[in-house]
Structure formats: structure tokens, C-alpha cells
Amino acid sequence: MSTPVSRSAPSRVFVGRLAGTPVFDPLGDPVGKVHDVVVLLRTKNPPRAVGLVVEVPGKRRVFLPLTRVVGISGGAVITTGLLNIRRFSQRASETLVLGQLVDRRLTLADGSGDVIVSDVAIEQQRNRDWLVTQLFVARTTQTRGLRRRRGEQMVVEVGDLVDLVGGSEPQPATSFLATIEDLKPADVADVMHDLPVDRQLAVAAELTDERLADVLEELSDDDRVAIVSSMDAHRAADVLDVMQPDDAADLVNELPPDVARSLLDLMEPEEAEDVRRLLRYEERTAGGLMTTEPLILPPESTVAVALASARRVDVPPALATMIFVVRPPLETPTGRLVGVVHIQKALRESPAVQLGTILDADIESLGPHDEIGKVTRLLATYNLTALPVVDDERRLLGAVSVDDVLDHLLPEDWRDADTEDTDTAMTRSAHG
Fold first, then answer.
1. What pLDDT sits at residue 420?
2. Superfamily of domain 13-89
3. pTM here?
4. What is the 3-state secondary structure (H, E, C) of the chain?
């Protein structure tokens, strides 16, 4: 049984330290964690903090007005009631502290130079409004090549800055990246989806090619097209090179034809050929859904080799459950498909056992033009996470995994879909 949590008066809080803080209801039950703080930037007055973005179970981010916060202390935020679980949607007049203010470069009013925002303090006033009162900043110093780095760190008052409201040139995402470093790609995509377009682009610019590729695979079509279209063509091609071929093909298919052609010409020839091959098939067919890079081994390979292949970090979990055993060549389109070895079966065998002796040779296969309905029925009927796609000569062309099928069965806007539990609803009337 939960015990009530005592309420304490809020005090000055730095948002960077507040991020990740658990949020509790009045009885002490946890309801989520602080993800960010929403502020309204004002020309003649200090910015006003109006609410918290709280991440609740299911990775959903919702809005909690600060008028509903009765205590911020001891590593906890205490609220007056339950949260509205409708997904937070940022308004045009709002600014996210961690998402948009941190890393912004501003100018000191005394003319002593520029600073970069590292953290922001909010403080409750006598009228119970929360205002941004101070910023933790670092002076910028110029180095060779006109690049700027962080120097002396200090706390400044809001009035000591001249361009907080008007903003500045596009800011880097150095500090923001630290807050998403440990998140899974799908969660990073969810965070990026909530950012304004210019901030999305800034974050994308500082992610590694591999990390950005993973995130693009999880973003909605509109978001990833906007990001790739804004990137330098050579970098965009490099990112496409490291994406799963089916995801890269889906993305290329959404781009304007001239952009798609130029990026394919800049990609590595082998990777580009895989993408071009997938683009020949209709989107909702086995050929359009498949990846050309499943786990493929010859019959004489051993269980030890199969398990090592399945452990590769670049192999999606749905594909890691099955080894496709073929005659040479081993690159798709391969030689004739002999059968498959289920990883669960391989785990029960000696490491030296050859794959050809433990085959499932009766697995159902798909043709590249089979419709998604057939793909779904076979996956469900045989409780599989992947199926081989073969041509008329039974050469392996690729494999369809259950996660790719789900992406195409769900509504197009499933990543943005909201569900609302009316029993826990709370109005957002105090938002502004």
C-alpha cells in the first residue's frame, strides 16, 4: 500500500537536474518522470515556465501544468492529481528548455562576448508563477577555423542576456545529445518527433551515421524525408549505406525522384544495388517488404558460426532467430535455398554440428510478388518471426520479418496515435 508523500514548497530548480526526476501523485504512487520543461519566452519580462513534459509508462510524453505541482524536493516532483495522458503537443509560442534552449548561443548584455547555455533555472514567485531567473552558461572562445568551444562557466541572470527571446543562429545539440545517449533508437525517434524542424536537423547533424540510420528507421516518413532532404548529399548517402536495405528503399521511395537518383548514385554500389532491387517491387508485397541481408550460411557451416552470426549487433532481433542455409553464392540472390536453422534448435546442439544436419527443409517460402496478406497468414500460422523470399529457381532473394509486416499493417500515423483514458484525464486549462 502506498504511503502519502509530504508536500513541500518548490524552490529554485535547474532543469538539467530536474530531468529524469520521478513524478508522484499525492498518495506517493509514481506516475512518470520529468522529460523537459515548457517555457514561454517574453520580450519585456523573464520567460515564464508553464509546465513539465512528463514521460509516463509506454514512453508517452504528456503535459503537467506547473499549477498542479505542489512540491519539488528530495529528488521527486509531487502533483495534486492524475495526469492527462493525451500526448504532449508543443504550441508555437512554447519553447522546450532542454530541447531548444540548452546549447543555444547568446550574447551578454555587457558586451563581453557570447555564451552557450548549459542549463536553465526556474523559480517560483510569490504569485506562484514560475519564471526563468538564471542560466548556467559557458563563454565561447574562438579557435582555428572559426570554430568555437566552451570556456569559463558561470551563472548569469536573465537580464544579463540581450537575445534570449529572439534566438540566435542554429545551435549545436551537444548537451541535448547527452540526454538521449542511452535511449533506444525508437525512443530517440520519439523525442526528435516532438522537436521543431530546425532542432531536429541540429540533432541529426551531430548523430553518427550509424546512430542516425537507426533513428531514421524508426521515424515517420515526413520526419525522415525532411531530415534527409536537408542533409548534405554525400552524408545522406553514407547514412543510407548503413540503413537496413528495406528501410533505405522505403525512405528513397518517399524522396523526390531527382533526389532519390542522386543519392543512389552516391551510395556504395553494392548497397545501392540492393535498394534498387527492392524498389522494383510494390510496397505491400513480399519483395517490397523484405530485407536483402538476412543471416545466410552454407550447409557446412557449424552451429558455432551460426550463433556468432546471430550475436551481431547489426542484426535485428526478428531476423536473428533464423539462419538461411543456401548453396553458393551466399549474397542475395543466392544459390538454391536448402532450408533454415532456427536459433532455438541450434542452441540445443553441439557447437561443432554442421547446419546441413539440423535443417528445417519444409519451411514455407514466399515469392517476391506475394501480397502482404499471404505474408501475414504464413507468419501467424507457423508462429515465425521471418520467412524466406525466393524466385522461381528457389534462389534466396531476401527475408520478410514480422516487424516490417507490422509497420505496414498499422495505420500510417500509428507513431503519433493517442489513446485517452477518461478516468485519468486532467484538463490543460492552466497551460498558458
1. 42
2. PRC-barrel domain (2.30.30.240)
3. 0.67
4. CCCCCCCCCCCCEEHHHHCCCEEECCCCCEEEEEEEEEEECCCCCCCEEEEEEEEECCCEEEEEEHHHEEEEECCEEEECCCCCCCECCCCCCEEEHHHHHCCCEEEECCCCCEEEEEEEEEEECCCCCEEEEEEEEEEEEECHHHCEEEEEEEEEEHHHECCCCCCCCCCCCHHHHHHHCCCCHHHHHHHHHCCCHHHHHHHHHHCCHHHHHHHHCCCCHHHHHHHHHHCCHHHHHHHHHHCCHHHHHHHHHHCCHHHHHHHHHHCCHHHHHHHHHHHCCCCCEHHHHCECCCCEECCCCEHHHHHHHHCCCCCCCCCCCEEEEECCCCCCCCCEEEEEEEHHHHCCCCCCCEHHHCCECCCCCECCCCEHHHHHHHHHHCCCCEEEEECCCCEEEEEEEHHHHHHHHCCCCHHHCCCCCHHHCCCCCCCC
